[in-house]
Automatic annotation (TrEMBL):
Gene3D superfamilies: Medium-chain alcohol dehydrogenases, catalytic domain, NAD(P)-binding Rossmann-like Domain. Its cofactor is Zn(2+). InterPro entries: ADH-like_C, ADH-like_N, GroES-like_sf, NAD(P)-bd_dom_sf, SDH-like. Belongs to the zinc-containing alcohol dehydrogenase family. The keyword Oxidoreductase applies. This is L-arabinitol 4-dehydrogenase. It catalyses: L-arabinitol + NAD(+) = L-xylulose + NADH + H(+). It is an enzyme of class 1 (oxidoreductase). Keywords: Metal-binding, NAD, Oxidoreductase, Zinc. Its EC number is 1.1.1.12. GO terms for molecular function: L-arabinitol 4-dehydrogenase activity; L-iditol 2-dehydrogenase (NAD+) activity; metal ion binding. Residues 44-158 form the Alcohol dehydrogenase-like N-terminal domain. Residues 196-333 form the Alcohol dehydrogenase-like C-terminal domain.
Amino acid sequence: MAQQTAQQTALKPNVGVYTNPGHRLYVGDTSPSAQEVGSEHLLQPGEVVVEMKATGICGSDIHFWQHGRIGPTMVVEDEHILGHESSGVVVKVHPGVTSLKPGDRVALEPTIPCMKCVPCLTGRYNGCEDVLFRSTPPVPGFLRRYIVHPAQWCFKIGDLSYEEGALLEPISVALAGIQRAQLKLGDSLLICGAGPIGLVSLLCAHAAGATPIVITDIDASRLEFAKKLVPSVNTFLVPVDGPDATPENIATVIKSSFFADGSYPDVSIECTGVASSIATAVYASRFGGLVFVIGVGRDMVELPFMACSVKEVDLKFQYRYANQWPKAIKLVKSGLLGDVKKLVSHTFTLEESVKAFETVKDRASKSIKVMITNE
Ligand SMILES: NC(=O)c1ccc[n+]([C@@H]2O[C@H](COP(=O)([O-])OP(=O)(O)OC[C@H]3O[C@@H](n4cnc5c(N)ncnc54)[C@H](O)[C@@H]3O)[C@@H](O)[C@H]2O)c1
Ligand SMILES: OC[C@H](O)C(O)[C@@H](O)CO
Ligand SMILES: [Zn+2]
Ligand SMILES: [Zn+2]
């Protein structure tokens, strides 16, 4: 059977959003070309073509653009397409693909694991030794009009909006964290950082029944946003200088202000990756509490080692996610996480992508999640 394309005549030129080692950001031609999308021989077994409809910009996209790297191994060494938070519509499937058909609305998981190594075979494919992760160099990302992707990593979203479909990626980060932190009904929770990851963690933890929840940030506007999103959350503005600005002092104030009955945080979800914030979470923790670090940062970080020791603090980390999209889709559809679309503060077209990235970079824009759409 021939490879079928949904709209044989309506294909637009394929463009992608690139950065490069010179930190340029630009929209340029990419593959597959519209002609290739229309051809009968484009796809390998198991593959589909998706016309991307919505892509959120992640902090790591900004890192690759501005700093050219994340850590020692993820380095922009060539012209490189960004984006890994996406949804779209299937426009073509390989004849062997039975799970999807042209017209299906899908969210795309950016991880393409080998499914042969030990982490893959033991259900933790985020640790795949041979992983291809869209937008982590050298693997080109999702920010483009058409992409070839394995059907296995495209999940039907039904009547969810494309913006909700794109938000499933940061939601998956938070869900993976909540799952591995074993957060449960009635747990006292501290969330450090009210960026998109802190905020989706807040939505997920609130739905999971954590109480009380305190969220911190150094930016008052992000805390105001958190309060509008989940009115029952307590917010704490972290001082950045002055005598009160040490992690120990900040933790003391957090404990006396919000956990005065002595039920100090059972769990802290750290969503900044900043050393002083990780230290604050350690000092605020109850004896035997868990500090769960989602944020990423420097290669070497100083920790309050003795506070961890005398309080038997458990320290855990999260790297991306595994097996979270089906759960994320169910949760967003059920409404249990509230209206996640509220996180989308700005929307730009694919052609306006440079403006979209500038908006994320400019803190004065007060953006939360900036979305790039393709109508
Ligand atoms: N582990 C993973 O797989 C994974 C996945 C996605 C994102 N991340 C990381 O998670 C972190 C959060 O992502 P994001 O998109 O929300 O980023 P973001 O930069 O938008 O948000 C971080 C927030 O932390 C706040 N902050 C900075 N210093 C602080 C401090 N000392 N105390 C309290 N708040 C402080 C900032 O003002 C900001 O609002 C980043 O480090 C990101 O790279 C990790
Ligand atoms: O959402 C996924 C994250 O942005 C990535 O793991 C990134 O931090 C490194 O590639
Ligand atoms: Zn990301
Ligand atoms: Zn593998």
